[in-house]
Amino acid sequence: MTEDGAGPSLPLRQLGQYFRRARSDAHLTLDQVSAHMEWSPSKLSRLERGQPGKLTNRDIRTLCEFLEFETEQTAAMLGLAQQAAVKSWWHAFGDLIPENFNVYVGMESSARHLEIFRPDIIPGLFQTADYTRVLDRIYFPSGSAEEHDMRIDVRMKRQKIFTRKIKPVTLDVVLHESVLRTIVGGGAVMAAQLSHLADVSTRPNVSIRVLPFAAGFPVGLAVGPYVILEFGTAPIEPTVVYVENYTGDLYLEGESDLQKYRSATAAIQRVALDAVSSRNLLRQMTKEYRQ
């Protein structure tokens, strides 16, 4: 338990969700899995709900083996369990949790609403394949063509969360104007990317707005990229702030942290262009890049 409340921590909730999903995919009942683990069904149920309880590394390895987890998945489960006592936590790539095991993507796919601010690049959810490919080749200069294609495919599949027919996520996005004017891959790539943004912004569940240079610093200082994820099931699944960093990810659940980011979002949205003006700017810049 932390000072911010008595609910389960984010790592513990994620651990439980991965185990519950794996059991369901294997078509196993609580009784079947708990019998193998020599647990009571209630203990396994508490674990799947993310509730605190006694759990050893041996327990996790045994459960992962029974559910046929890959080695990397097992390492990720052990990493989540080691961080189960904290609410706001730092996921350093290659540390407790393997770099390729993306905790954020799992959270993103189950969220009901996302508020995104990007002062640097187009958010992954809205990147075209060509825009993604340029960035991926820079970040992974020694990667093979197959590896680049695999990461691009993952990025494109993520975008289904706002186009799916059943419970598509709603998004409120603010991009700094510099994102639109920073050239990635040349004029043709940028034209296609901004045209895609303009098209996506017409969806009823997506709002894309631009923070113009003229707005200055609405929060009083520079604010880095962040995402506020709401799941619609609080307090069982509380709101989380995800802060992306070059060397890792920061997940925040504390009420004081949430309030700061909500205040920042409100300040940014107050001075951002409205949705229609933002779309018009995207269309205008698309034409400029095509010239």
Automatic annotation (TrEMBL):
<dbReference type="InterPro" id="IPR010982">
    <property type="entry name" value="Lambda_DNA-bd_dom_sf"/>
</dbReference>
<feature type="domain" description="DUF5753">
    <location>
        <begin position="103"/>
        <end position="284"/>
    </location>
</feature>
<dbReference type="Pfam" id="PF19054">
    <property type="entry name" value="DUF5753"/>
</dbReference>
<protein>
    <submittedName>
        <fullName>Helix-turn-helix domain-containing protein</fullName>
    </submittedName>
</protein>
<dbReference type="InterPro" id="IPR001387">
    <property type="entry name" value="Cro/C1-type_HTH"/>
</dbReference>
<dbReference type="Pfam" id="PF13560">
    <property type="entry name" value="HTH_31"/>
</dbReference>
<dbReference type="InterPro" id="IPR043917">
    <property type="entry name" value="DUF5753"/>
</dbReference>
<dbReference type="GO" id="GO:0003677">
    <property type="term" value="F:DNA binding"/>
</dbReference>
